[in-house]
């Protein structure tokens, strides 16, 4: 081999071999984060966040199974039966952005634990509801709690783990616990609805949340945010949150209103909701120095199409769950437990999608 060929071979080998930086990133991405003193503390941290995701979906999925029995016991009018199931998601979705900013300002540890305690309290009280007004109020307050812990949990996961296989695994587990929790709620809803009482559905959930409170208090690393650097977008909060709530109220209640879309309460809430959202959009784009929704978020290619598709998908899915549970139990006269058994395939398919 000539000297020129030797130099060419050495150059090619040097280009193919990984740099020290690449090796360090790969190794660090597989290691346990330094803030966890042992594997037990990491397991406790992950269990808190995964358990929270499980319980958030638990209170959505299983509620549709107990709703026919619950509506009968509490004498809920047919025109009001959508509210106990939808108000939880309504409040949770409307308050996610403000609580995400609260987590940045005051830290994930404080926001997560306070939100988890609030979630536990109102889930427990839901089981003691003696009329549907109390039930709707308890469900709304529980939605407020989940809206605080979800962004705090995501923020802590993102900050704790470096990019790499370990982080990918944790996030895959986090995502897969959504369908697992959904079916777990369906199963417990069917079990309690058939053999106990619908009230036990909430009490079982509150027991699990109580365990999560104890685990999270001792295992989640303490962080206290950036109180002086992060600013709250109060103008965006007071326009976007009530705007979303009023708009969804008008869309949901229009079919039950005496005169439909012509009913005064529907027209007023719809117009005010749209106006508030329009004002909020203007504030986020032109006024707020630290907007809840940065304008460049929508500049990513295809992001608007993706959001529209997700909005339509989850809207149809919610309608399917609501009407399918009533159809299976009231038309087909299936037991709550059999209804849960019929829906198991959704859990398996959704879980596998997170590891595909």
From TrEMBL:
Task: Extract the ranges annotated as region (Disordered).
Answer: 1-23
Spell out the coiled coil positions from the record.
Answer: none
Q: Name one GO molecular function term.
A: transmembrane transporter activity
Annotated membrane topology is: Multi-pass membrane protein
Primary residence: membrane
Q: Where in the cell is it found?
A: Membrane
Asked if the record carries the keyword Cell wall biogenesis/degradation, the reply is no
Write out the entry's keywords from A to Z. Answer: Membrane, Transmembrane, Transmembrane helix
Q: In what residue span(s) does the Major facilitator superfamily (MFS) profile domain sit? A: 43-356
The cross-references to InterPro entries, in alphabetical order and at most eight, read:
MFS, MFS_dom, MFS_trans_sf
Locate the transmembrane regions by residue number: 39-61, 81-99, 106-125, 131-157, 169-188, 200-220, 232-252, 264-284, 305-328
| Gene Ontology cellular component terms for the protein in this record | membrane
Annotated protein name in UniProt: Drug resistance protein
Origin: domain of life: Eukaryota
User: Which PANTHER family did the record assign?
Assistant: MAJOR FACILITATOR SUPERFAMILY (MFS) PROFILE DOMAIN-CONTAINING PROTEIN, MAJOR FACILITATOR SUPERFAMILY MULTIDRUG TRANSPORTER MFSC
